TrEMBL record, chains A, B:
PROSITE patterns: HTH_GNTR (PS50949)
MF (Gene Ontology): DNA binding; DNA-binding transcription factor activity
Protein name as it appears in the record: GntR family transcriptional regulator
InterPro entries: GntR_C, TF_FadR/GntR_C, Tscrpt_reg_HTH_GntR, WH-like_DNA-bd_sf, WH_DNA-bd_sf
Source organism: Pseudomonas peradeniyensis
All copies of domain HTH gntR-type, residue ranges: 20-87
Gene3D superfamilies: GntR ligand-binding domain-like, Winged helix-like DNA-binding domain superfamily/Winged helix DNA-binding domain
Keywords: DNA-binding, Transcription, Transcription regulation
DNA sequence: AACATGAAAATTGGATCCAATAACCCTAGT
DNA sequence: ACTAGGGTTATTGGATCCAATTTTCATGTT
């Protein structure tokens, strides 16, 4: 497959930033570029390249890379460089099992407190998903839809954890949506889910969500098996 | 209250480490010192102090501090320094609610797979807890006991998450055990728990664990309320 | 005596320089 | 022609130096 080695300046801006803000800015730019897929897994990130791009020394770049490594978005190897971390792989099954646990609980807490605005917002995301074809946007809308349903959960720590996992999934979908059949399929699940939430049918909604996530897990699983099998 | 500003060299070793290992060593030393409480929350950590202590420049120290900040063990403020992060506080309720969710699931997965050795190990920890008076050791044994019961859970990601939370609790107990009555209390819970696990009574064990954690949450909660109230 | 103002010291962050190491290429030998 | 070896180059990590900012302390004024 022909991987075109696109320049970093095309995927990140190239504005000159004041030095004392450099670390934060660079970190944020890189993070979002990695999360939304503009920097695919495996991409090598050079310190000097980023430094000249933002018009600073390598120092703030180093720090930013270390921060991202700590969040396991990058893997830094001595004298070799930083590469964008691989996507969900071996632990896909664990990840989705965990998500079922976390997200059903969030749903349980949230549904009774959801108001008409929340439901309307969720339905709006579904509507946008209907006509959306860009993968990055589909991933984003999917995340926003789910978070809209969980948004009223009381446990903030739980919500933060869920958001991390949804970001992971978004990143994964960004790359593999096309190659794995999935597409319209989930829309029915989404509609049923928001309907149940709207009617405050907690148990039914939980059951739907569980089914929805297990289905996704199975799809990804068989997709990954098929890939490594070939 | 009289806080004696003990020297860093007393809580960390003072061996000279080869420069190319400095970052990792320093990070590890600091992490364990923070986790097991030798560095109490609020302690200010100076870059130069660590640097001279280990006989290296400030560079590897900086990086180590950043790593620890990313794990939220430190809070670094511009031109002011790094202070050891505060313990469980506002989010204690969220934390324990989350732990109930995570740990009951781990227990559900683990119990059917526990063998005689696992049970024996758990009982050994209980026995050591009987005669132990040092808080740090009590916290450690408590963590090891719980992990022993969860150890056979299939979901590795779940286990990693639980271990993080248990480390947090260990750190908290290290400081507040004495001032909050708690002590022998949990031993009965522990014994009942391991008995249920030994008899493969999953639902009963889960119920016991839930009660155990909720009790701990209530204790900590009232302790914190009492503290801030005064 | 108390407070405000200012200067000095302490401390962190960035820039530049040097060392160590790994990747790469080119050449020579089979 | 292909492989092995060595040397050059690229790249990261640490050390040192400088800039920016905050804190602290002292001094003067009210």
């Amino acid at each position: 497959m022909a991987e075109k080695p696109k320049l970093l300046s095309t995927v990140l801006g190239s504005e000159q930033v004041p030095p004392h803000l450099a670390r934060g800015v660079i970190e944020e730019r890189l993070r979002s570029a990695i999360l939304d897929g503009r920097l695919p897994p495996g991409t090598a990130v050079r310190q000097q390249e980023l430094a000249t791009l933002f018009g600073v020394s390598r120092m703030p770049v180093r720090e930013a890379l270390r921060q991202l490594e700590a969040q396991s978005l990058l893997q830094v190897v001595m004298h070799k460089g930083a590469v964008v971390a691989p996507l969900i792989g071996e632990d896909a099954v664990d990840t989705y099992a965990l998500r079922v646990l976390l997200e059903t609980e969030a749903l349980r807490q949230s549904i009774p407190l959801l108001d008409a605005d929340d439901i309307a917002l969720a339905r709006a995301y579904i509507r946008q998903l209907e006509s959306e074809t860009r993968h990055a946007e589909i991933g984003r809308l999917n995340r926003l839809f789910h978070m809209a349903l969980y948004s009223k959960a009381q446990n903030q720590k739980l919500l933060r954890m869920i958001e991390i996992e949804l970001n992971e999934e978004e990143r994964f979908l960004r790359f593999h949506l096309s190659s794995m059949g999935l597409g319209k399929l989930t829309q029915d699940d989404h509609i049923a889910l928001v309907d149940a939430a709207s009617d405050k049918l907690v148990d039914e909604a939980i059951e739907l969500l569980e089914e929805h996530l297990n289905h996704a897990a199975r799809t990804i699983r068989s997709y990954l098996d098929r890939q490594s099998g070939n």
